[in-house]
Each structure stands twice: as structure tokens, then as C-alpha cells.
Amino acid sequence: MNAKENEKISNALSLLKFLIPAEEDIKEIRYKEARSFFQEFKIEKNMKSICYSNKGN
Fold this sequence. Notes:
Elements: H1 3-27, H2 34-44
């Protein structure tokens, strides 16, 4: 195994460290839908609402 392959494997394992707790959160229903998360975020940060919908609104 050369250095480049070793780095790819190391990076993949590092990403897995983040995915495992995230999968547990999903199984335990500890998440919010993106839309509601950003609505709350905007309210807390006093941000103006910006709609990026592709529905023509």
C-alpha cells in the first residue's frame, strides 16, 4: 500500500467516526427536518426569510 492509498483509507475511517453517531441519532429519531431547522435558525438569528424554492414562489 502506498502513501496515497493509505491517506484515502485514513480519510474514509475518519468520516466513519462522524457517521456512526449520526446513524444512531436517526435510529433514535433525534433530528429535525432541514426546513424546520433553518426556520428556527433564522428566527433565533433575526434573519430575513429567503425562499430558494424552484416552484416559482
